[in-house]
Amino acid sequence: MSEHHINTEKDSGNGGASRRNFIGAVAAAGGLAAIAPGIHLVQVSQANTPPRPAGEAASKAVRWGMLIDTTKCASGCTDCVKACATENGINETVKDARQGSQWIRKIDIKEVKTGRTHSLPMLCQHCANPPCVDVCPTGASMKRADGIVLVDRHICIGCRYCMMACPYKARSFVHQPLTEQNPEVPRGQGCVESCTFCVHRVDKGQIPACVETCTKEGHNAMLFGDLNDPNSEISRRVAQVTTTQVRADLKLDLGVRYQGI
Amino acid sequence: MLRTFRLAVGVLSAVAALVTTGAVAGESRVPKPAITIENPGKCVAPVEEMRRNHMDMLKHTRDKTMREGVRGMKTSLNGCIECHASKKTGSVLGSNENFCQSCHAYAAVKLDCWDCHQPKANYKATGTAPADHPGTAGAKP
């Protein structure tokens, strides 16, 4: 996303359905998709990794990452957002819509000169050098050994400095008392929160809910895996195709990469 | 003489009765917590140790799990809830008969866990994102 792109406010309707169907049909026909001349990508279903054994800490050898193929992400499709809300119990009604928690959101962008548009999900980019961690006055904002950036709500004081520091507007503040949490995803009033890469699922060897749903619905726009493992599908993909880090000029070394923008 | 003796016995017994009722009244002024152990004998440590050290155990686990990603430890808050949630209400909170609340109300120690954690056992959040969820429409990025 360069500065030539501007973000347009566009309501996500159902306009992208035909494109999605087309992509789904292509993917289904043969299981082999041509990305560019000479590059062929075998559509492998995303195998879950083995769960980490009980009592073992997250390893530095792993760097969890996500690849989002914007050419397959249809404008108006919000399956990932809904899956995230269901998985993480983001179900509260807020008085002011601006206060609602956004762990993942869909944005439509347009390049001014050419008019080319993209739709993509924006979420915590799980930086290797996260500004939110830099600025946190209590140490609540933290990066786990395997690259997942989290908020330790036990020591978060809700100052929201991290929200200001995040270049991706990936963090939200909970303004009201909550009672409908998922037992595996504690959330509460007065704390900042953001995408956790579904850390509770990843530790069990599953993939994040958004990626699982995107794949299950046949969009195949999201891929999750270990960027440090040269044999993982995500590593093979980022070695084959051009991928972009949003605001790469900030040198934050993002865990989330986009293809096609 | 006999009359005086009878009177003394009467006064004594009356005093004794008063003392007894007084003691009972004194006990009821500070009611003991009504602790119901739903699954007795399955705890990760003996009762005495749990009563004295459960908060340290939980804090240790919390830091290991949250910051280092260690899962499947012997002690976990969700493990407590699964065993100790009331069979009637499915929760460790709600009234002074529910496991966590009963003791903490008695000891006047505030419970912070449940501001964020789910106090019900095997709870499945059924709600989905409201229609106006800010991520679902073209909200400003």
From TrEMBL, chain A:
Keywords: 4Fe-4S, Iron, Iron-sulfur, Membrane, Metal-binding, Transmembrane, Transmembrane helix. It comes from Sulfurisoma sediminicola. The chain crosses the membrane at residues 21-42. GO terms for molecular function: 4 iron, 4 sulfur cluster binding; metal ion binding. This is Molybdopterin-containing oxidoreductase family iron-sulfur binding subunit. Gene3D superfamilies: 3.30.70.20. Residues 64-95, 147-176 form the 4Fe-4S ferredoxin-type domain. Pfam families: Fer4_11. It comes from the Bacteria. CDD domains: PsrB (cd10551).
UniProtKB/TrEMBL annotation, chain B:
The keyword Signal applies. Keywords: Signal. Residues 1-25 form the signal peptide. InterPro entries: Multihaem_cyt_sf. SUPFAM superfamilies: Multiheme cytochromes. This is Uncharacterized protein.
